[in-house]
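# step 3/5: fold
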Amino acid sequence: MGFSRNRNTNFEGPPKEFEETVVQINRISKKTKGGNQIRFSALVVVGDRKGKVGVGIAKATDVRSAIRKSIEAAKRKMVIVPLTGTTIPYSVNEKFSAAKILLKPAPPGSGIIAGGPMRVVLEAAGIRDAVGKILGTKNKISNVYATLKALETISGIVEARRK
């Protein structure tokens, strides 16, 4: 009755609900009495490309476990992003730690014009047309969280306008 995995079939299981993107993996080394303790930190963006996106960061002794833990953390902290067609409804400036970002709506067909970490978050959220600029630090973690905070701000503006 169950599924078999023999050499001739390519069974991948049920389709995934969310798309996961690994943004950064850091190697962390800690000096201890017994030598160096090496761990890995993973930053992952998870989204369904329909308006839901989350960011997770986790540490583990191996890379695969760090990625798995960060995916679970990202799924726990999902944000719902309001979309107007294929873009965002409002322009927003946001600051998180040392990261400053500018996020603006764009006309249909222009695509995502934004830097690496910002682009990953916008694509995972399902935004197809937007203009973004990273103004502060080059730190990927801070920039990803600043982008997520900007999307939260936009959803807050939309909620306030509905009332």
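# step 4/5: annotate
The chain has a mean pLDDT of 90.
# step 5/5: archive (pending)
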